[in-house]
Design brief:
Structural class: alpha/beta
Number of helices: 17
Helix content: 25-40%
Low-confidence stretches: 1-32, 399-403
Largest sheet: 6 strands, mixed
Number of strands: 23
Oligomer: single chain
Mean pLDDT: 89
Strand content: 15-25%
């Protein structure tokens, strides 16, 4: 373990702290760099970060990559977002391990860029300091927040959770380790949203716990699910089955749950001639029409896809907990058109809800220092503005010369959800990351402008800024110790691993 300080402003950075990165853009050189490979920083160690690093290292031999991760452990969404009963999805970790084993790769865990709050209890590097010491910086830190409904009762009542919180909780994300969802207040749950994450949440609520306990779900989650009284799950969307965002695999898994029934859907929302639909949509309609093998009147647990309902209010009990969710029935302009518009009808429907989950999307946020660096971030869409290939755009109006407005910031790139929004699966994230990696390689090989700080010495320069107060940096060999300890804990309870759910536990294992 390496001990360093929480003050990361090296002497060079302190001297230039009063000069903004954006104002120094004209000092970037376009001289040939073929005499050496680039030094690149990647912010985030999830699929987008690793796949971008892999692509650039493949395209430009001997590229030096420093990967920064706020938590002591790598893999991001693969570790904390993928459902525990989908271990096959996590096979990409083998490729990431291969990347990390390169002598040209350095993992720098427990180190956040700009952030000092939340679950970031480790080291912090100011963004401005990082930009001084690399040829290129790639932002691939994903989506750390979730979207809210903005309806009465959402913030006041107990028993309302975001899908991100719930997924993070059962996957051992330290930020949500202590949310302790109460699943004992009644037997009906409402999930607002009809994407794949919503279906993951439903499956966790309905699945046989003995099956889940063989996965890497946390033991705390197992204990909570054993006490759960939830028997009926509503997955609610404001549009219809032809507009639904979930995919075949997730629906099929719910349909196949042993001892769990599916309530018939409204057939008026299904096209009369399913056979004429495009293949993917046809298969999805067939699955929903066929339903599950178990009849709802013969099983204890059941679920439904409740279409054309838009949430308007949460109602509570006298003790401050949720009691029901009120929806407005909606009307589709063209029910069989996948892009149909939707409007309200003023008809209200109340669904009993002893617990509710909102699953309407994740959202990325800007890092501290973006404005000063001239990095354009779209708060509404939750993305770093870019050219579609991952080249980050300047804030409009941040330059004295109008010719720079909206142009690419040399040496600054993005990949993954912070680039395109929180959509798609790991395979689509890989493709997206490869496009960013290709853009970086193309720019480097064509002698385009890149970052030109005092040096391109990267982590070696950043780690020297020791002034006061030490914190721990996790490197790849330290992660392997954590990994080994988690696997040993898992053996004790008959599973692949039992995750540490606090950064303190992770750091102790690394020691």
């Amino acid at each position: 373990m390496t001990s360093i300080t929480k003050s990361w402003l090296c002497a060079t950075c302190r001297r230039k702290a009063s000069t903004s990165f954006a104002s120094r853009i004209s000092h970037y050189s376009t001289s040939s760099r073929h005499d050496r490979p680039p030094r690149m920083a990647v912010v985030g160690s999830g699929p987008a970060g690793f796949y971008t690093a892999y692509r650039v290292m493949s395209k430009i031999p001997k590229t030096k990559v420093d990967m920064f991760e706020a938590l002591p452990v790598p893999y991001g969404l693969v570790r904390f977002g993928v459902a525990p009963d989908h271990p096959e999805v996590k096979n990409c970790q083998e490729k990431f391990e291969e990347v990390a084993s390169s002598p040209d790769f350095t993992f720098i865990g427990n180190v956040s860029i700009g952030n000092t709050g939340g679950h970031f209890s480790g080291c912090t590097i100011p963004l401005a300091s990082m930009l001084h010491h690399y040829d290129a910086v790639v932002f691939a830190y994903g989506a750390s927040k979730d979207k809210k409904l903005g309806i009465p009762g959402e913030s006041e009542l107990q028993g309302i959770y975001s899908a991100r919180e719930f997924v993070g909780w059962y996957n051992g994300l330290p930020e949500y380790a202590n949310i302790a969802p109460d699943l004992t207040q009644g037997d009906e749950a409402v999930i607002i949203g009809q994407g794949n994450v919503a279906l993951d949440v439903a499956r966790m609520l309905l699945e046989n716990v003995d099956i889940l306990r063989k996965s890497d779900i946390t033991e705390a989650a197992i204990e909570t699910l054993l006490k759960s009284r939830i028997k009926r799950v509503h997955i609610v969307g404001r549009r219809g089955p032809m507009q639904a965002a979930f995919t075949i695999k997730e629906v099929r898994e719910l349909m196949k749950l042993h001892g769990v029934g599916f309530h018939d859907i409204d057939m008026s929302l299904i096209p009369g001639e399913i056979s004429k639909l495009p293949r993917a949509r046809r298969r999805l309609m067939d699955i929903m029409v066929k339903g599950s093998g178990a009849r709802v009147d013969q099983v204890v647990k059941s679920w439904s896809l409740d279409f054309c309902l838009s949430p308007t209010e949460f109602l509570g009990r006298s003790d401050g907990s949720i009691d029901s969710t009120v929806f407005e029935r909606t009307s589709l302009a063209s029910p069989f058109d996948s892009s149909s518009s939707v409007s309200g009808t003023d008809e209200k429907v109340a669904i009993p809800s002893s617990v509710a989950f909102r699953s309407i999307g994740y959202k990325s946020v800007a890092l501290p220092g973006f404005d000063e660096a001239g990095i354009s971030f779209d708060d509404r869409r939750g993305i770093i503005e870019n050219d579609g290939m991952g080249r980050v755009l300047r804030i409009k109006g941040s330059e004295n010369s109008a010719q720079h407005q909206g142009s690419h910031l040399p040496g600054v790139y993005c990949a993954g959800w912070v680039k395109r929004g929180p959509t798609g699966v790991i395979a689509s994230t890989m493709e997206d990351a490869f496009s960013t990696g290709d853009a970086i390689a193309s720019d480097w090989n064509s002698n385009a402008q890149f970052l030109e700080g005092e040096s391109s010495s990267g982590w070696e320069a950043l780690r020297t800024g020791i002034e006061h107060g030490k914190c721990k940096v996790i490197q790849w060999e330290d992660w392997r110790k954590i990994d080994k300890a988690e696997r040993e804990r898992g053996l004790l309870v008959g599973k692949e691993r039992e995750k540490f759910t606090s950064t303190a536990q992770m750091l102790e294992a690394a020691n």
